[in-house]
Design brief:
Elements lengths: L3 E8 L3 E8 L4 E8 L10 E5 L1 H9 L8 E4 L1 H16 L1
Antiparallel strand pairs: 1-2, 1-5, 2-3, 3-4
Length: 89
């Protein structure tokens, strides 16, 4: 059985992102808020990124970073439900 871990990344220069991570598998990313830039990486939404992209961009300093923290599964699922409701409007 693979272990799934949930993270919240919060940085005023990048925004707020949530991740559902299972080693070696695609990572579900929720972008809840963003900084004011143009382009696909800076849009609110829900998408998949590769595990290597997660490690390279967000997870490479998990033990040291003050911006990324482990969160419980139910908090991740509440944020996902909230984003899905936004898309239905």
């Amino acid at each position: 059985m693979e272990k799934i871990t949930y993270y919240k990344y919060d940085n005023p220069n990048v925004g707020v992102r949530y991740f559902k991570v299972e080693e070696g598998k695609p990572v579900l990313q929720i972008i809840e808020s963003i900084q004011k830039k143009k382009g696909r990486p800076f849009q609110m939404g829900v998408n998949y990124i590769t595990y290597m992209s997660f490690i390279g961009s967000w997870g490479w300093k998990l033990a040291e970073s003050k911006n990324i923290k482990t969160i419980p599964k139910d908090k991740f699922e509440r944020i996902l439900d909230k984003m899905v409701l936004k898309f239905k409007k």
